[in-house]
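Q: Here's a chain of 88 amino acids. Please give me its 3D structure as tokens.
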Amino acid sequence: MSQSNNRFLDELAKLMTDAAGAAQGMRREVESLMRAQGERLLRDLDLVQREEFEAVKEMAAKARAENERLAARIAELEGEIASLRKPA
């Protein structure tokens, strides 16, 4: 009786180990499938990547600073023109 119990327990342990391995393989497969579906969904939504967003954000900040510098220069030149047009 002892021998058959050991064999039964050994077979049961082997079955459980195989089932755990299969479950892990299935989990990896589902994760990769979900990741692929998520990436496809994001691609279809036409969302920008973080790197592209950061690059455009930096370009906009530089353009804003340049506009402010040019606006100040225009105001300075308009002041000079106005002072030259005043009758002496």
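Q: Can you summarize the key feature?
A: The first helix runs from residue 2 to 44.
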